[in-house]
């Protein structure tokens, strides 16, 4: 039996996230973790990463006691920033401990725009002759596009 899909109204992202994260503290932790990974400097992110929120305390693992000490002195500034930018995260205090660093979230890197292709007339003579000997139209077109794009990239390099 095939069940028909019912059309419904749109739900807010907050509601959807709450259905994915069953406990409210997990949602708060996700907000705090996201803030940390996008707001602290890359040098800090390399050596310190949040691991959990427990009773309003954001626990951050650091790579060494030196980093724990350094971040301890920056804790008040970091806490003010998280309260200002993510007020509903529930974080009231920061604690830094030496421990294993979780993997960084993978970010999708935007693909650079394709360079403007080189005009066919600007192709090298020997390439033009080689292309004219290809009898398959689709193959010739594919090679031409690849060659013009490659030449355009090389031309645009400093």
Overview of this protein structure:
- The protein is α+β, with helices and mostly antiparallel strands.
- The chain has two domains: 78 residues, GMP Synthetase, Chain A, domain 3 (2-Layer Sandwich); 37 residues.
- 50% of the residues lie in helices and 12% in strands.
- The protein contains six helices and three strands, in the order αααββαβαα.
- Strands 1-2-3 form a three-stranded mixed beta sheet.
Short description:
It contains 6 helices and 3 strands; from the N terminus they run αααββαβαα.
Number of beta-strand segments: 3
Rg (CA only): 27 Å
**Tally of DSSP helical segments:** 6
Distance between the termini: 62 Å
Q: If you average the pLDDT, what whole number results?
A: 80
Structural class: alpha+beta
| Largest sheet geometry | 3 strands, mixed
- List unreliable stretches of 5+ residues: none
Share of helix, binned: 40-55%
Content of β-strand: 5-15%
CATH class of the largest domain: Alpha Beta
Strand order of the largest sheet: 1-2-3
Q: Give the total of domains.
A: 2
